[in-house]
Amino acid sequence: MKRSMLIALMVALVLALAVPSALALNDNQKVELEKLYEQQHQLRLQILETQVEVGLVETEDANLFKERMQERWEAQKQRMTEGDYSFGFGRGGGKGRGFGGRGCGNCPVAEEAPAL
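^ that's the sequence the OP posted. Answer follows.
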């Protein structure tokens, strides 16, 4: 009985140590993610510019959006330097984050941005 308990404990310990290192990003993956997130940021800026050109968004609102997007991008870059690359799909588990319309909870800006 004690022997099986000891073996189970050893297996659990090995798994607890092995799984995080197996799931860690290597340097190439980090560089690739950083490039993709930069592309995503630039595409969002291009989309906003196009929306202004076709009249979907006012210039004043677009400037506010750009400020907010830049602040979020700076915060995202800071998190990446700290090793957090978990942006995008799946962060909230697909069930919402329960902020009741107050934003995502990760935004560096507390004030509401104008709606599109």
